[in-house]
Task: structure prediction
Amino acid sequence: MPSRILIVDDEVNHRKALAICLRIEGYTVLEAEDGRAALELLAHEEVDMAIVDLMMPGINGLDLCRRMRFRHPAVPIVLTSAYHLSQRQLDRAEIRVLGFLPKPFEMNELVEFLRASLAASLSDAVAG
Result:
């Protein structure tokens, strides 16, 4: 069964390009244009991973990550942004993300990162 990935990004062209790339790679992709739409979608859909943009109107990426951690603690989150965040800043925000990919990034870089992360997540689930 293909992994289900949620993409949350208010930049429609970026979100659509990611979705197309991931679908070509065989992933099932769900899309949300902002944090509120993502939370509504997560209320009735399960995902294996979320790719969340940091800067969005309304519920921003950090707030969405915090809410997801509370409601869906097992879902790995990859945070993306054109604004660079250090690991120290991520740790201080206490959002426990799987990783941070600064925009712009190459699609193959994202796909390799997701493959490795989902494989590690699956082996952790089997071992645990």
